[in-house]
Amino acid sequence: MKILIVDDHMLVRQGLKQIIADEFPQATFGEAGTAAEALKCVHAKKWDVVLLDLTLPGRGGLDILGEMKMIQARLPVLVLSMHPEAEFAVRVLKAGAAGYLTKQSAAEELLSAITKVVAGGRYITASLAEKLADDLARGTTQIPHEELSDREFQTMRMLAEGKTVKEIGAALDLSGKTVSTYRARVLEKLRLKSTVELARYAVEHGLVE
Hints:
Elements: E1 2-6, H1 10-23, E2 28-32, H2 35-44, E3 49-53, H3 61-71, E4 77-81, H4 85-94, E5 99-102, H5 107-118, H6 126-138, H7 150-160, H8 165-172, H9 176-190, H10 195-204
Parallel strand pairs: 1-2, 1-3, 3-4, 4-5
């Protein structure tokens, strides 16, 4: 099994490798600490599964998930994140991920998820399945930020983290005018008046670290 681990923290990558190698001793690993490195690895080699962190320097995991799937359409991508499942899991599954786990998940859950997605399935935790069932039963009344496009969502998070329009543009390869347009759309959709209110909203909903 060939596994690519994408996380900007070396200790996290090493820890994941150890957990997986104990269960799958024949597994081989690749590592990437940035979005650019991850895409380079996916271009260069076929992988059985990618473990992808959402929060990377510059372009985040959500931003490159679609590109990975364009390069290798059948590539299972298992997202690992510090962020609450309730706030991110549905979005990344819609973007093409094969599963979503928080980094607090037990090692056994990670191994089960890898086994499931490598076999061609999707890994959905019991709590997420319950949330999806509840949403269907209620007719799915969306939380405001769930209405944002992926690019708007990324812009919102980066603004909430204190990044400037220029910094966001450089990270996402967008013009300042385009970033400002996304900012305006985000404020309108969330019914907020300023970046300060946006940052408070993001913190309250667990959308930033």
